[in-house]
Amino acid sequence: MTTVLPESVAALVDRASEPEFAAWRRNIVRLDGCTNPIHLVGAATVYDTATGAALLSYGSDVYGGRLLTACGNRRAAVCPACSAVYRADTYQLVRAGLVGGKEVPEAVSGHPRVFATLTAPGFGPVHTRRERDGHVLPCRPRRVGDCCPHAAPAGCRERHSADDPRLGEPLCPRCYDYAGAVLWHAFAGRLWHRFGLELRREVARRAGLSRTEFGEVARLSYAKVAEYQRRGLVHFHGVIRLDGPDGPDSDTPAWGTVPLLADAVQAVAGRVSLTAPGARVIGPRVLRFGAQVDVRPVTSYRQDAGEQPASAATVAGYIAKYATKGAESAGAVDGRIRHSRDMVMLPVRAHVLRMIGTCWWLGGLPEFEPLGLRRWAHMLGYGGHFSSKSRRYSTTLTALRRARTDHRAEQQRASLGLVDRPTVTVGRWRYAGRGYSPEAALLAASVREGGASHGA
Average pLDDT for residues 142-161, to the nearest whole number? Predict the structure, then answer.
C-alpha cells in the first residue's frame, strides 16, 4: 500500500485544475506505473514520404514541457512495471527456443533439449534448510562438542524456518573462504564460457567426431540466467539445445539424443575448471562448479507433479522470473558502492557485508585490479550478465521490443487516419532528467496498484 502525503494530494488537485491536465495525465498513465521515468525535451514531425508534406507535429510542450518515457530497468526491486515487461519478453524469447514461434520453426520442439542447473561450490558450511517428504531436517547434524579450529560449533541441529535470518550465514565466518567466493563470482562468467566450449568438444567426442566435423553437422545453443542464493553466490540455470548445423532451422543428426546431451552436460560440469590468479596475501585458486548438478529433459507439454522432465512453459517461466532479480535477493544493495566509508551504514546482514568488504579489499590489490571488484562490490563480485543466450538460440529482446514499438506505431497511425499513407517521423530529443514530481508519483502509484489488483 502506497503512503499518501497530504502535500502530494494537494499538488494533484492543483494540477487537475490546469488546462493541460488531460495531456499531462496521459503522459504518466501510458508508462504503466514506471517508477523512474526518463524526461525528454524536444519535438517531432510526421512527414508523408510520397509528397514530403508535414502531416503532424508534436513536442514536449504538449505534455507539460517534458515527454516521459519508461526507464526500462529489468530489476523488479528497482522498477516493478518495467521489469514485468522484461520478464514477459524473456519468457517469449526462451519459450520460442523450445517450442517455436517468433520466427523460430515449430520443428525445434523435436530437437534434444535439457534444462541444467550448475551450482556454485562450497566455501564453508552455512546454515541451510533441508526437507524430506515434507519434514524439515536438522540443519547440519554433527556430534555434540565437534568444533572448528576457531572453537565454533561444527554443526547445527536446529530445524530452521523458511524466514530464519541465519539461513545462508556461515557457521564460522573465520573458516569461510570469502576470498575464494568473491573470486569465483569474478570468474563465473568465464567459467560458463569454458563450460560451453568443453561441452561442444564432449558432444563431438561422444558422437565420434572431430571438432571440425561437429561444426559441419551440429550446433549447440543455449539461454541461461544467474540466480543469487541466500549464501550470496549465483547458480546458473540454462536451456541447452542440440540443433543441426544451421541452428533451429536444420534437423539434429540421428546420433543427437537427449540422453547423450544430458550425460555430456553432467560430465563437463563436473570437470571444467579455471585457475584464478593469486597475490602475495592469497594464493591462486582452481575454480569449478559445485558438485550439485541437475540436468532434466525438456518436454513441450506440462508434466504432472513429481515427474522428472520439465515442461517448456515451466522452464521459460523459471528463467524469466530470475532474469528480473539481482543481488538484492541475497540481501545485497541496489546501487554501486563508491567509497569505503559507504560500507559503514549499509543495511545488510553480516555475511553480505563481509563479501562486500572482501571485494573492496581484493579490488585494491594490483593483481586483482583488472577484475573491477570494487565496481561490482554491490553485486558481491559478480559482474557478468544475468541473462544471456547464444546467437542462434531464438529471437532477440531487440526484435521483440521492435515488434511492440511497430505495433504501437500502427495503432497511432490508425487513430490519426494515416494507415494508407507512407510516413516517416523526424524528431530531435534531448535528455532532461528523470523521476516524478510528488503529484506525478501519486498518479503513477495508483496506476501500479490498479495493475496489480487487476492482475490478482
Answer: 91
